[in-house]
Structure formats: structure tokens, C-alpha cells
Amino acid sequence: MEVIYMSFPLPETCSGFLYEVMPGDTMYDIAKKFGVDLRTLIRSNPQVDDPDVIYPGQIICIPEQSEAVREYHMSSSPSPRIVLPNHGPINVTRPDNRLLPMLFDLFAGPKSELTLTLQEHNHHMHYMVFEPKEVGPYLEAIGDTDMHHMHELGQIILKMGYEIPYEYPCDSGWKYWSSDHVYVGTGLRDRLQSDIEIKRAGVDAYNKILAMNPEQSIRDVIIHIRDEELLHIDVLNKLIRKYA
């Protein structure tokens, strides 16, 4: 099924954490879930044109004012992941050697989830200190999600009976991942465009894996990761338009 993302404005600032609206969510339900006053939740999200009508995929700010919010915040991560609803358990029933070179490359190649995780957290640390500081929480959230992608890819590789690699296939054989793959960048647009470029390469690679018709459990994970990368690309493009 093709996933179509609507374009929504991002919160200007957020004193709590970012939350992605899920199917069936209402502002009332979200306020109740996190123990936040409904009027406070609405005031914290002026980018939402009509609080009575919100859509899956919108990113809203949950103001940190209650114990429920603090518990969710701490149990998720310092900045909760920008994610889609989770897939089912990873149950690999047989090795599929066709997929291994691509899985290794996506795990620890030059344009891999490992590279993205370290690159985005590097950029996040930069924007904790320098302007625009509003960008930092988004990059932390996306980097945390890419770290989770690494875990999911690693689980597939392990369940196929192989060890976790930090090598990737290339024309001359195999190479170890290098920190040289992490792009520090010279400005906001430059840094975010680099993240987008790697994510687009990843989306292409995930689509190639899907075209090879892997077993259903692997397929579900790959679709999930690919669609989260598409969501991240959308968020990064919005950050460029707003701040760069």
C-alpha cells in the first residue's frame, strides 16, 4: 500500500516533546493520555488550524506539565522518536542470501543507518549550542529513530544466522565502516540536505529489497523503516523551508 503524507506546519517551539498524531487521535484524547489540560495543549500548538480536526502524521507539541508527560518523556528517550505505528514481531524463518549485501550496506555502509545516526546526533549537538536551536530536538528525534532502524536491521541479520557486520560490500571486496562517512557540514541547509540525500538512497535500497519479495516478516520491517525515512525526509524539508 502506498503511503501518502500530507504537508503540515511544524510547532514553532516545544517545552515538552514532539508527538506524531496517530489514526483515530483527537486533541481531547491526546490531552487525556498525557494528563495535559486541553486548552494548554491547544495553545501549545498554534500551527494546528482547527483543533477539532487533526490528521495522522501531524507533529504536535505535548507541553511538559504533568507526571504522565514526564514518565512518557523519560521512558521514550530524551526526545521521543518521530515514528509510525510499529510492525509486528520479527520472525525470520529462513536465510535469504540475496538480501545480505544490501542489509549489510544499509546497516553500516557509507549511506547507512549507522552513518545517519551519528551524523544526525552530531548535528543535534551543534544546534543545542548554536542557532536555530529549534532544530535540535527534531534532529535528536530522527537520530534516535535511525538508531532503532539499526537495531531492526541487526535483528533480521542475526535471525538469518549471521553476525552483526560493520563491513559493507564494495567493488574491491569488503570495507569497514569509517567515521569519514559522517558529514559535519558547514551550515543548516548543507547539513539537512546531506541527511536527506542519505535517506533518499536508503529509500531506494529498501524499495529494491521489497522488489525481491522477501518473506512477510522481513517485508513488514522494511516497509516500516522505509516509510519512517519518507516521514523524516518530509520533516527535514520542512525544517529547511522554515529555518534555512
UniProtKB/TrEMBL annotation:
Cited Gene3D superfamilies: 1.20.1260.10, LysM domain (3.10.350.10)
Residues of the LysM domain: 17-62
Origin superkingdom: Bacteria
InterPro entries per record: Ferritin-like, Ferritin-like_SF, LysM, LysM_dom_sf, Spore_coat_assembly_SafA
Listed name of the protein: SafA/ExsA family spore coat assembly protein
